Amino acid sequence: MTSPTAPVRDRLRAALGVAMKARDRERVSALRSALARIENAEAVPLTGDFRAGAVENAALGVGAADAARRDLSEQEQRSLVQAEADEADAAAAQVESLDPDRADRLRRTAADLRALVCAG
């Protein structure tokens, strides 16, 4: 298990491993979603005019055409996970009258994500 002072991404990854071993599909899904949100935020926008071209003009070698990813601060990562938790709470409010069990699971997901953010 990771320490409470570990970066939020490390805590999410550690919790994901535990959830996978426990076969907790809902928790695995929530943790993967939060990690994906962080990774998507690190992606850099494409710039320039990208078109198919001649093979001889293509970048050669593994990673030759890769763009550097953004470095997110710990606070930015925490904010992204908090936003994921907020969305789970909003979804719970929307489905409360139709499916109270689903709303409870969504609230537990939100609480679980917030606990991982606040642990640091």
What can you tell me about this protein's structure?
With 120 residues, this protein is mainly alpha-helical. Helices cover 61% and strands 0% of the residues. The protein contains 4 helices and no strands. The protein has helices at 8-21, 25-42, 74-95, 100-118. The protein is elongated, with a radius of gyration of 19 Å. The two termini are 13 Å apart. The model has no long low-confidence stretch (mean pLDDT 87).
Q: What is the rounded distance between the termini?
A: 13 Å
By oligomeric state, this entry counts as single chain
Radius of gyration: 19 Å
Tell me about the largest β-sheet. Answer: none
Number of β-strand runs: 0
Shape: elongated
Mean pLDDT metric: 87
* Beta-strand percentage range: under 5%
Order of helices and strands: HHHH
Structural class: mainly alpha
Task: Sum up the structure in keywords.
single chain; 120 residues; mainly alpha
Give the topology.
Layout: H1 8-21, H2 25-42, H3 74-95, H4 100-118
Helix pairs in contact: 1-2, 2-3, 2-4, 3-4
